[in-house]
Design goal:
It contains 5 helices and 2 strands. The protein has 2 domains: 3-53; 56-126, Winged helix-like DNA-binding domain superfamily/Winged helix DNA-binding domain (Arc Repressor Mutant, subunit A, Orthogonal Bundle), CATH 1.10.10. It has helices at 3-39, 42-53, 55-72, 81-90, 97-109, and strands at 113-116, 119-122. It has 131 residues and is mainly alpha-helical. It is 69% helix and 6% strand. It starts with a helix and ends in a 9-residue tail after the last strand. It is flat. The protein has a two-stranded antiparallel sheet.
């Protein structure tokens, strides 16, 4: 293997390791929450149930906010949903294309970004200058 190929493979392994470590931490936290709900005061069980009930909505809001941030940071470049998915994956954020498309449509409907066919870009006032 060429050194560049080895380095690319090493970077993939490091990214996977970071993703797995984050996943381990999140699962540990979820387990501790459930354990506390069983052994803690009665309010703890109710809080865990409410948190779990709102988890999907919170996830969708976070993905939507991340999508808007990515489009704004693209410095006026038009992005496709697939390109945004790749950028999210670079940050270990896994979102399906339908969620990304839905977020893009909503931001475009709110006049926060501009839709051009299947591509999206930030408003001129929102473009971040890279200097």
């Amino acid at each position: 293997m060429e050194p560049a190929d080895i380095e690319a493979e090493l970077e993939k392994v490091r990214a996977d390791a970071a993703r797995l470590q984050m996943q381990e931490q999140l699962l540990s936290q979820a387990l501790r929450m459930h354990q506390f709900a069983k052994t803690g005061p009665p309010e703890a069980a109710r809080a865990v149930r409410e948190f779990a009930a709102g988890a999907q909505e919170a996830r969708e809001q976070n993905i939507s906010a991340n999508v808007l941030t990515i489009v704004r940071q693209a410095a006026g470049e038009e992005l496709t949903p697939a390109a945004i998915q790749e950028i999210l994956a670079d940050f270990s954020i896994h979102a399906d294309l339908s969620a990304i498309r839905q977020a893009l449509r909503r931001w475009a409907e709110r006049h926060m970004i501009i839709k051009n066919g299947h591509r999206y870009r930030a408003l001129a006032a929102d473009q971040v200058n890279r200097t």
